[in-house]
Write a structure and sequence with these properties.
- By secondary structure, this protein is an alpha+beta fold.
- The protein folds into two domains: about 1-95, TolA/TonB C-terminal domain (2-Layer Sandwich), CATH 3.30.2420; about 110-225, 2-Layer Sandwich (TolA/TonB C-terminal domain), CATH 3.30.2420.10.
- It is built from seven helices and 13 strands.
- The strands form four sheets. Strands 6, 8, 9, 11, 12 and 13 form a six-stranded mixed beta sheet that branches.
- β8 (about 155-160) and β9 form a beta hairpin.
- The protein is globular, with a radius of gyration of 19 Å.
- The relative contact order is 0.17.
């Protein structure tokens, strides 16, 4: 959650100019289906920071809470901390100001589309035009020590959302692999920036899946796959 907030935050210019900082607390009521979420500001700092905190929280997806084997309504409190010095440091680290992913119209509805409904699929961005998703994984994958010593091989399957910002969010582990392989797969995936999917000539949020194979014979293949489950969420 902390990493997600840092990666997605866009500090309002007016608040930065006036040196406004603080922690906005957002209350969320997650319904039984986890598709419906009600948002409210519990502790305010300023109107512009409150709105940015709400925007970030609306990007989050949830599993429903469970009690006695039944899905229930649950309340969650998300603190969103605004610190100008830390924000500038995070911007430099993530290359926020150096990379423009999409300059056209961006969908603001927060809808997440399945890839089959898109006019143009998301695609990874690399400085080297000859680089591919699989090549990047193979060149940067560090086989976890425990997995190596225990001869653990297999595939990690992850689903995730490509945001209109080009970063990914809401990573879900579909098929884990022990020995630190799942953690390494997530670490690699989070290093990649993406061109967002296009729907109705707008950049939109969209689902993707990735399979990252761990093979001790160094002949593994790596690919990202469309999520063809639901059309939208």
């Amino acid at each position: 959650m902390k990493d997600f907030v840092c990666e997605e935050m866009i500090y309002p210019e007016s608040a930065m100019e006036n040196n406004i900082e603080g922690t906005v607390k957002i209350g969320l009521t997650v319904m039984q289906d986890a598709q419906r979420v009600n948002y409210r500001v519990l502790e305010s700092v300023s109107p512009e920071l409150d709105q940015e905190a709400l925007r970030i929280c609306k990007l989050l997806m949830f599993y429903p809470a469970v009690h006695s084997s039944n899905y229930i309504i649950s309340d969650v409190i998300v603190p969103v901390k605004f610190n100008i010095k830390k924000y500038k440091r995070n911007c430099k680290k993530r290359g926020f100001k150096e990379l423009t992913v999409y300059e056209g119209v961006i969908d603001t509805s927060m809808t997440v589309y399945a890839s089959k409904s898109l006019k143009k699929m998301p695609s990874p961005i690399f400085e080297d035009p000859s680089m591919s998703f699989g090549k990047f994984i193979m060149e940067n994958l560090k086989y976890p020590d425990i997995a190596f010593t225990q001869n653990i091989e297999g595939a990690v399957e992850l689903s995730f959302v490509v945001e209109t910002s080009g970063r990914i969010s809401n990573i879900e582990i579909i098929e884990p692999l022990g020995g630190g392989c799942t953690e390494e797969a997530i670490h690699l995936l989070k290093q990649i920036m993406w061109k967002p999917g296009i729907y109705n000539n707008m950049a939109v949020r969209s689902f993707l899946k990735a399979n990252i194979n761990f093979s001790l014979n160094d002949k593994s293949g790596h690919q990202y796959l469309p999520n063809h489950n639901n059309t939208t969420m």
